[in-house]
Amino acid sequence: MNESLHLWLIPLLPFAGFLINGILGRRLPKSLVTTVALLAPLSSFGVVLNAAMAANAGAALPHIETFRHSWINAGALHVEFNLVLDQLSLVMLLVVTGVGFLIHIYSAGYMAHDEGYARYFSYLNLFLFFMTVLVLAGNALLMFVGWEGVGLASYLLIGFWFQKPSAASAGMKAFVVNRIGDFGFLIGMFLLLGNFSSLSFNVIAAELAVKPAWTGGVLTAIALCLLVGATGKSAQLPLYVWLPDAMEGPTPVSALIHAATMVTAGVYMIARTHFLFDRSPFALLIVAIVGAATAIFAATIGLVQTDIKRVLAYSTVSQLGYMFLGCGVAAYSAGIFHLMTHAFFKALLFLGAGSVIHGLGGEQDLRKMGGLRHHMPITFWTMTVAVFTISGFPPLAAFFSKDAILYAAFLHGTSGKIFWFIGLVTALLTSFYMFRLWYLTFLGERRTGSLEDHGAPVHARSDTRLVLEAEHPHPVHESPWSMLGPLVILAVLSIGGGWIGIERFAAYLAPSVGMLSVEAGSASLEWTLAGLAVIAALLGWFIADRLYRARPDAPGQLASSMSGPYNLLLHKYWVDELYGAVIVKPILATSRFVLEWVVDVAILGGAAWLLGGIATLGGAILQRWQSGNLRSYAAWLAAAAAVLLLYVLWAYSPAGLSAFFNHGTGH
Amino acid sequence: MIPISWYLLLSAALFCLGVVGFLIKRNLITVFMSIELMLNGVNLSFVAFAHEWHLVKGQIFVFFVMVVAAAEAAVGLAIIIAVFRARSTLAVDRIDLMKL
User: Fold this and answer.
1) Do B4 and A661 touch (CB under 8 A)?
2) Does the B4-87 domain belong in CATH 1.10.287.80?
3) Domain ranges of chain B
4) What three-state secondary structure class fits A200?
5) B35 to chain A: closest CA residue
6) Prediction ipTM score
7) Do the chains contact at B5 and A626, CB–CB below 8 Å?
8) What is the tens place of the pLDDT at every residue in A92-120?
9) What is the mean pLDDT of residues A469-474?
10) Which residues from A are below 8 Å from B3, CB to CB?
11) Residues of A with CB below 8 A from B98's CB?
12) Contact between B99 and A626 using a beta-carbon 8 Å cutoff
C-alpha cells in the first residue's frame, strides 16, 4: 500500500486553527472564529475517516509515514518523525477527532457569551493538535511531545478563567502533579534508549519478539516507569488529585480533555507499549492493583460529593481505574473498548451537566437542583441514557465494555477474582452515585437553595460556582440546539457504541495489542457474570431510589448517623490535606529556606551588597579629588606637567638638566 | 652675544610667575593676566630658539599664539563680565556651581 493517507494533516489542521484563532482571533468576527474553530476538527475528522475507509478497503495496517529528514540525529540517538496508523491509533483517532468535533460544536453554544471566545477555541484546537500527535506518534519521544502538549493545553484550559484564583491554582496543580508522572515517563524513555538503542515502538517490539525468553528485570523497571507516567496523566492513585480540581475549567473542556480523551492517554500508552508490559507479570499486577484500587477509591468519594461536576470527575477517575484494571489483566482490547464507550457516555454526562449548569445560570450544587426534567426535556432524556449506560444496563454501551473487563479479570488467575469482586462493588457504587445525581438533578421538586436540604453541614467546595457562566440570569431554560445536537449524537453512540461486541473489537485490535489472552471461559460463566453485574447495577439504582426518591430526608439522617465515614468521604479521605502536609509543606519550607534565605538573601543579596559597597567606598575616596575648586585642579595640572617634564628630561638624557645647560652655556 | 640660557631662564621665570599667580590669586581678572604671562613666557622661549637656530618657524608660531591669546582675551573677558553680572563677584573660590 503506497498510497499516502496524509496522516500529517490530522494534527496540522487543528494547529492551523490554533494559529489563526490564537493570533487573529480577537480581531476576527465571531462567526469567522467559530467557522475556523469548527472546520479544524471537522477536516481532521474527515482525514481520519478517509484513512479508516482506506483501511477497511484493504490498506495495509500499520501504515507508517516517516518524514524525509530525521528529527534528532545526535551520536547514538536517532529519532524519526514517524506517524503510525494502526488499528489502535485508528480507534483512538476516531474517538478523539469525532468526540472532539462534537464538543467543539457544543462549545460554540456554551461559550457564546464568554469574552475569551477566540482564546478558548484556539486552546481547544491546540489540544486536538497535541492529542493527535500523541496518538499518531510512532516513537516514545514524539509521543512525549504530544503528552506534554496536552498537559499544556489542559493547564491553559483549566485556568481559562484565570481571574478566578481557584481556577488558576487548579491549573497549576494539574501541571505540577503531571510533572511527577512525566518524570516517570522520561526515566522509562532513558531506560528504553539504554537497552534498545531506539525509541521507536516498532523497533522495540521487533527486538523483543526475537528474544522471547527476555522477561522481568529491566523490562519491569521500564514498565513501572511508564506506569508512573500513565498514573499522572490518567489520574490514577496516587496522582489522581489534580483531576477533580480540573473541573474549574469550562464544562466542555472537562468533557473533552478531562473525561473523554486526554486522561485516557495513559491507558492508550500502556496499550501502545503492551509488548513491554506483557513481559513483566509483576508490572501488570501493579497496573491491575492501581486500577482496581483507584476504581473503588474514587467511586466511594463520588458517593457524597455535592458538586455535579465533581461527582462526574470522581466517576471519571473510577472508570479510568476500570480501564487500567483491564490493561492490568492483559485484556488491552477490553481496556480500549471501555475507553471508547467511556468517551461517549462520559462526554455525554459532562455535556449534559454543562447544559444543566448553563440552564441554571452557573449553579453546580446538586442540592439546589431538582425537578429539571420538565424544564430541560432533551437534556433530561440524553442524561438518562448516559446514567443508564454508565451504570451498566444492557444493551447500552458500557454494559459490554465493563462486562468485558470484569470477565477478563475474573478469568485472570486467583488475584483476578479479587479484582473482579472489587470491580463488581465499584459497579454497584457507580450505579448508586449516578442515580443519586439523576434523582437530585432531574426528578423531585426544585429545591430553592437551602444548604440543609441534604443534611450536609460542610460544603466541600462552595467556591466552584462559575461566576462567568452566570452572566445571563434568566429563568431555567433548555439549552440551544448547538448544545443539544451533540448531546443527542452522543446519546445514540452511548446506546449503540457497544454493540460491536468485545469479540469482534478484540479481533480487530489484535494486530496492535495482541489477542485477548483469556482462556475461553464457558458461555454460562459469561452469562452469570453479566447477570451479577446487572444485579449490582439494579441494586445501586434501588438504593438510590429508596434514599433520594422515596424518602428525601433519609440521606441526611444517614449522613448524621454515620458522620465519621460520611465526613471521611466528603473530605475525599483528606488526601489533599495529607499531600499538602507531607509533600507540599516540606518542599515549600525547604525552598523557602534554601532559595529565599540561602540563595536569595545570602548569596545573591550578599553579592549585590558587596558590589554596591565597593562602588560606594571607591566613590567616597575619589570624591576628594573632585573638590570643585578650580585652582586645585590647576595646581594638579601644573604639578603633573612638572612631573612629566622632569620625567622626560631624566628619561631621554641621563645627564639630565645639567647636560642641557652645559650645552647651552658651552655654545 | 647673550647666551640662550639667559633667555630661557627669563622665560621660565615668567612662566613660573604666571603659574604661581594663577594658583594663588583670587580675582578672576588677575588669574586671567597670569595666563597671559604664562603664554608670553612661552613666546619668549620660542623667539629665543628661533633666533638661536635661525629658523623662522618659531617666530611664526609666536604669531599664532598671539592670535589665540587675543581671541582668548576677547572670549574670556566676555565670560568674566557675564559671571560678574550673574554672581556679583569675581572671587574664583565662589564660582563653584559645578561642585555637588
Assistant:
1) no
2) no
3) 4-87
4) strand
5) A634
6) 0.76
7) no
8) 999 999 999 999 999 998 888 888 899 99
9) 45
10) 664-665, 667
11) 628
12) yes
In 3D space, the residue among A534, A314, A292 whose CA is nearest the CA of residue A426 turns out to be: A292
Q: What confidence score (pLDDT) does residue A3 get?
A: 61
Of A626, A638, A664, the CB nearest to B4: A664
Chain pair A-B, CB pairs under 8 angstroms = 34
**In this predicted model, what pLDDT tens digit does every residue of A422-439 receive, in sequence order?**
999 999 999 999 999 999
Q: What percent of chain B has pLDDT over 90?
A: 64
Distance from CA of B63 to the nearest CA of A (A): 24
Subunit contact B23:A635, Cβ cutoff 8 A: yes
Higher pLDDT, A189 or A366: A189
Give A408-422 pLDDT, tens digit per residue: 998 888 888 999 999
DSSP per position, A574-585 = GHHHHHIIIIIH
Measured between CA atoms, the residue of chain B closest to residue A635 is: B23
Q: What is the pLDDT of residues A356-395, one digit of tens each?
A: 988 887 888 888 888 888 888 899 999 999 999 999 888 8
**Which residue in A656, A648, A650, A666 sits closest to B5, CA to CA?**
A666
Give the span between the Cα atoms of A370 and A364, in whole angstroms.
12
Contact of A69 with chain B, judged by CB distance below 8 Å, is answered with no
Window 7-36 of B, Cβ < 8 Å to A: 8, 19, 22-24
Which one of A626, A631, A646, A657 would you mutate to disrupt binding with B, by most B Cβ within 10 Å of its Cβ? A631
Q: Give backbone dihedrals phi and psi of A74, rounded to 5 degrees, phi first.
A: -130, 105
Distance from CA of B61 to the nearest CA of A (A): 21
* pLDDT value at residue A424: 93
CA–CA dist A388, A431 (Å, integer): 8
Helix extents (H) in A463-605: 481-496, 502-513, 523-545, 554-561, 563-570, 575-579, 585-591
Q: Does A665 touch chain B (CB under 8 A)?
A: yes
Q: Is B5 an 8 Å CB contact of chain A?
A: yes
CB proximity A624 to B under 8 Å: no
Contact B3 A667 (CB under 8 A): yes
Place of cell 462549545: A107
Residues B17, B11: Cα–Cα separation, whole Å: 10
Q: Which residues in chain B land under pLDDT 50?
A: none
- What is the predicted pLDDT for the residue at A518? 57
Name the residue facing B99 among A628, A635, A664 (closest C-beta): A628
A393, A528, A550, A553, A563 from A559: Cα distances, Å: 28, 34, 17, 10, 6
pTM of the complete model beyond 0.90: no
Do B29 and B90 meet the contact criterion of CB atoms below 8 Å apart? yes
Q: Please name every residue paired with A200 in a beta bridge, in sequence order, or none if there are none.
A: A139
CA neighbor of A513 nearest in space, from A321, A267, A297 = A267
* DSSP characters over A626-647: ----HHHHHHHHHHHHHHHHHH
Buried b (16+ CB within 10 A) or exposed e, A230-252: bbbbbbbbbbbbbbbbbbbbbbb
Closest CA to A376 of A484, A482, A236: A484
